[in-house]
Design a protein that fits this description.
The protein is mostly beta strands. Helix content is 3%, strand content 38%.
C-alpha cells in the first residue's frame, strides 16, 4: 500500500541558493590589500549531467563581484567544463574523469582569489548489494577518496537525512537520474541515493546534499493501525520487520525491485495476516511499475514441515527474506529474473529455505525452489549478503542447519542452482563432512555469504569462497563443488581456524557472520569478534593463515573496497557490534593494522550513532560514503 507525501510548497527558488545556504564549504583564500575571497563548496564531486553551483564570498571591499575560472581559463573551456558569471559550473560534454580547479578572482583588485576543487566522476551507480553479482564488495571507479585525503583532518560527516526506522538493507546509488517533479528540489538531473527501512518506507535523497529539506520522493507501504511492519513481539524478536533485504536496481529500465513485508489486520494482534509483496518502483517517481506489487506465493511438492496434502507452501508468516535481492539473466528466459532468498527469523518453526525467481517485466513467479521439501529448516540468511550469480545465470547460496539427504533436502550445504526447463534445479552442491556436528551445534554456513572470485590461474579457474559459524573457510571449484562424503572434503581448500572459530561443543560465538570481499588479488574476511584479515591468492589458493591482520576486534561487518582501478584502495567497514558505539573504519588494504580513519577520532562531528544499529553495509560512491545509522542516513566526504 502506497501513501504519498504531499509536495512541498516552499521549495527553494534555485539550486544555487540551496548550495549557498546549506552546503557552504569554504576553500582557501589568498588575500591582497585586506581583501579575501572564499569559494564554497570547497570540494565538489560532479557527474556528467549534474551542474554544480559555486559561491564566492568577498570581504574587505564593497566590490563583491568576482571573475570565474576553470583550470586558469576564464569561464572555462570545453575539455574541463564551463562556469558562468554566477558561479554555475557545467561539466564538459566530453567527460574525462579528474580534478579541476575552480577560481574566483576579486574584481576589486583582479588579484585576490579563492579556489575550490571540482572532481569529475564517472561511476554510474551501485545497483545491488556489495556492488555486483559476484558480491566482490569492490568499487573500482572511486576517483575522489584516496588514502591521502581520508583522514580525520580532511574527511568526516558532511550531512545527514532523517529516516523513520532502522536500516538493514544496504543503500543504493544511481547517478544522473532525471526527476520530473521531486517533492523537494528542482526537476531535472540529480544523483540519488535510495534507502529502505524496516518501517516499510523507501526514500530517494539527493546524494550530493543539494536538497536537504527532505527526500526527492518517498513511498510508505503501511497504513497504521491496520497495516504495519511485522512486529518483533509477534515472532520473539526485538524491533520490527519490514524491508529487510537490500533491493536491486535495473538501470536499463530505471526500476528498483524490493520485497516488502507487512502484517495486515493488525487490529487482531499477532493473529493478523502476514504478507510478502514484490514491488517494482520507478526510480524517478517511486510509482509502481509492471502491474506491481504482487503478493509473493509459491508451493512445491513435499512432505516436510508445514506441508499439507503433499505440498509445501511458502509461508509469509514464518519466512523472512534476508539476503540481498539478485537480478540475473536466466539462460532460458529473454527477461532478467529477480531472485530472493528466504529463511525464518530466529529459527521460528516451521520454516524452510526458499529461492524464488520473478520475471522482471511481469513480476510473475518463474522459479521456485525449497531447500528441504521433505524435511525442515535449511534456511538462507547469509547475514544479508546477496545471492551470487555467474555470467551464465547459475546461482550460488549457502543454507543453514536442517535436513540433508543429498537428493532433495540440502540443509547446511552450498548449492549451485541452474534454471532449466522452467525449474530451478540443484546442479551441484557441497556439504561439509562434519555436517552432523555442525547441525547439532547450530554451526550453520548460512551465517555467511558467497564470494565468486574472478578467473584464477592454476587448476581451477572458477573458484568461490564461503564459510560459516565454525570458523572454517571453504575454497570451492564452481565447476565441481564436491558433493558430500563422510570421510573427507572434496573441495579445493578447507582451512580450519582461518578465522576465529567457535568453541567445540558450544553454541556459536565466532566464525563468519558476513561475506568475504575481493580486491587486487586479495580476499578480505572480517570474522565475528576477530581481527580483520586479508588472504592473498596464489594460483587460486589461499594461505592457511592471514597475510595481513588488523588490531581492532570486529563484530562481523562486511568489508567493502573503494579504489581507482588497482590504486588508492581503501577497505571500509561499518562496525555495529563489539564496539562502544557503531563505528565506520577505513583501513589500508595491504596492511589492515593501519587505520586511515574511524568515526571515533572526532566523535562530536562524525559519530555514526549513539544507539545500536542492525548490520548493514556502507556504500561508497563518487566521493562520498553513505552510512545507514539508527534512523538516519549519514553521509561522509571531504571536509572544508
Amino acid at each position: 500500500m502506497k501513501r504519498p507525501i504531499q509536495k512541498s510548497l516552499s521549495a527553494f527558488a534555485t539550486l544555487g541558493f540551496v548550495l549557498a545556504t546549506v552546503l557552504a564549504i569554504p576553500a582557501k583564500a589568498v588575500a591582497g590589500d585586506g581583501i579575501t575571497v572564499t569559494v564554497s563548496p570547497g570540494h565538489a564531486p560532479v557527474t556528467s549531467m549534474v551542474q554544480q553551483q559555486f559561491t564566492a564570498t568577498v570581504k574587505g571591499t564593497s566590490n563583491t563581484a568576482v571573475t570565474w575560472y576553470v583550470d586558469g581559463g576564464k569561464g572555462g573551456f570545453k575539455k574541463v567544463g564551463f562556469i558562468n558569471a554566477s558561479g554555475l559550473y557545467t561539466p564538459p560534454a566530453s567527460f574525462v574523469v579528474g580534478a579541476h580547479t575552480i577560481k574566483a578572482v576579486s574584481q576589486a583588485d583582479n588579484t585576490t582569489f579563492g579556489t575550490a576543487t571540482v572532481y569529475l566522476t564517472a561511476l554510474a551507480g551501485m545497483y545491488t548489494n556489495k556492488n555486483d553479482n559476484t558480491r566482490s564488495g569492490q568499487n573500482l571507479q572511486e576517483t575522489v577518496l584516496t588514502p591521502k585525503n581520508v583522514n580525520v583532518k580532511t574527511f568526516g560527516k558532511v550531512f545527514s537525512f532523517p529516516l523513520d526506522q532502522v536500516v538493514t538493507a544496504q543503500p543504493l546509488y544511481v547517478a544522473n537520474v532525471n526527476l520530473p517533479s521531486p517533492l523537494n528540489g528542482s526537476a531535472g538531473y540529480h544523483n540519488v541515493v535510495y534507502v529502505a527501512t524496516e518501517n516499510d518506507s523507501v526514500y530517494a535523497f539527493d546524494a550530493d546534499g543539494k536538497v536537504l529539506q527532505g527526500p526527492l520522493w518517498q513511498d510508505s507501504f503501511i497504513d497504521p493501525p491496520s497495516v504495519v511492519p511485522v512486529p518483533g513481539d509477534c515472532i520473539e524478536t526485538i524491533g520490527e520487520w519490514g524491508i529487510t533485504p537490500t533491493p536491486v536496481i535495473d538501470p536499463t529500465t530505471n526500476t528498483m525491485y524490493l520485497d516488502v513485508r507487512t502484517m495486515e489486520d493488525h487490529t487482531k494482534g499477532c493473529d493478523g495476516t502476514y504478507v510478502h509483496r514484490l514491488h517494482a518502483l520507478d526510480l524517478t517517481t517511486g510509482a509502481e511499475k509492471f502491474g506491481g506489487p504482487v503478493v509473493i506465493q509459491a508451493s512445491v511438492p513435499g512432505t516436510g514441515a508445514g506441508s499439507v496434502d503433499g505440498v509445501v507452501s511458502f509461508s509469509a508468516h514464518y519466512e523472512n527474506s534476508r539476503p540481498g535481492l539478485l537480478l540475473s539473466q536466466s539462460p532460458e528466459d529473454k527477461d532478467s529474473i529477480v531472485y530472493m532468498g528466504a529463511a525464518s527469523i530466529e529459527d521460528t518453526e516451521p520454516y524452510h529455505g526458499w529461492i524464488l525467481g520473478f520475471n522482471s517485466q511481469t513480476l510473475a513467479l518463474t522459479y521456485a525452489l525449497c531447500t528441504t521439501p521433505d524435511g525442515s529448516a535449511g534456511g538462507i540468511w547469509q547475514a544479508g549478503a546477496g545471492l551470487a550469480a555467474d555470467a551464465a545465470g547459475n546461482i550460488f547460496v549457502q543454507t543453514g542447519n536442517g535436513t540433508f539427504d543429498g537428493v532433495g533436502d540440502y540443509g547446511l550445504s552450498v548449492l549451485k542452482l541452474t534454471p532449466s526447463n522452467g525449474s530451478l534445479v540443484v546442479a551441484d552442491s557441497y556439504t561439509p563432512d562434519n555436517f552432523a556436528v555442525l547441525n547439532q551445534w547450530d554451526w550453520d554456513i548460512s551465517s555467511g555469504g558467497i564470494l565468486l572470485l574472478p578467473p584464477q590461474p592454476g587448476n581451477y579457474p572458477n573458484l568461490m569462497v564461503g564459510g560459516g559459524k565454525e570458523g572454517t573457510v571453504y575454497v570451492m571449484n564452481r565447476d565441481h563443488l564436491g558433493g558430500y562424503t563422510s570421510n573427507g572434503n572434496d573441495i579445493v581448500q578447507y582451512i580450519v581456524g582461518a578465522i576465529k572459530a567457535s568453541i567445540a561443543g558450544k553454541q556459536p560465538t565466532y566464525g563468519m557472520w558476513n561475506a568475504p570481499s575481493y580486491f587486487d588479488g586479495n580476499v578480505y574476511i572480517f570474522g565475528k569478534y576477530d581481527y580483520p584479515k586479508m588472504f592473498t591468492l596464489n594460483n587460486g589458493l589461499l594461505p592457511t593463515t592471514a597475510t595481513s591482520a588488523g588490531t581492532v576486534t570486529m563484530g562481523g561487518p562486511d568489508p567493502v573496497i573503494s579504489a581507482n582501478g588497482s590504486s588508492n584502495g581503501i577497505v571500509w567497514a561499518l562496525q555495529s557490534e563489539a564496539a562502544p558505539v557503531p563505528t565506520l573504519w577505513a583501513f589500508n588494504p595491504n596492511n589492515l593494522a593501519q587505520v586511515y580513519y574511524n568515526t571515533n577520532q572526532n566523535k562530536a562531528r562524525d559519530q555514526v550513532s549513539a544507539a545500536a544499529i542492525k548490520r548493514a553495509d556502507p556504500l561508497v560512491a563518487n566521493g562520498r560514503v553513505y552510512i545507514p545509522a539508527s534512523s538516519q542516513l549519514k553521509v561522509y566526504g571531504l571536509l572544508p
